[in-house]
Amino acid sequence: MTERVKRCRQHRPWAVLSFVVAVLIAWGSLTPGSGMPSQLPWDKASHFIGYFVLAGLVGLAGVRLRWALATAVLYGIAIEFAQLPVPGRLGGDWADILANALGAACAVLILAAIRRR
């Protein structure tokens, strides 16, 4: 078995988990507002954590860290604007986009520090 095949098999579970997390983020983000609590006191923290996990898993899936960050940030922006037509949701919130980007950046910075060791 070649080294490349071994690496692909090593990264596959992380790639599957990345996909699952991306689907969960989309589901939670695109649920109409009537299906959500009116006030979420941890809203920005949940954005931060969700995209921290997403970027971290994408990085663990073998994607270069700069691309893991770009993927998570662009996905967060896309989800925010996909919320615009969803009833009861306020899409395009720059504070949410910032929380998403900060979470993704923190995950990538931690992975970069671990890889340097």
TrEMBL record:
InterPro entries documented for this protein: VanZ-like
Keyword rRNA-binding belongs to the record: no
All residue ranges annotated as the VanZ-like domain in the record: 42-113
Coiled coil regions in record: none
Transmembrane domains' residue ranges: 12-30, 45-62, 67-85, 97-114
Keywords carried by this UniProt record: Membrane, Transmembrane, Transmembrane helix
One Pfam family of this chain: VanZ
Transmembrane among keywords: yes
Source taxon at top rank: Bacteria
NCBIfam families (alphabetical): vanZ_1
Name of the protein described by the UniProt record: VanZ-like domain-containing protein
Organism: Halomonas urumqiensis
Native organism taxonomy: Bacteria, Pseudomonadati, Pseudomonadota, Gammaproteobacteria, Oceanospirillales
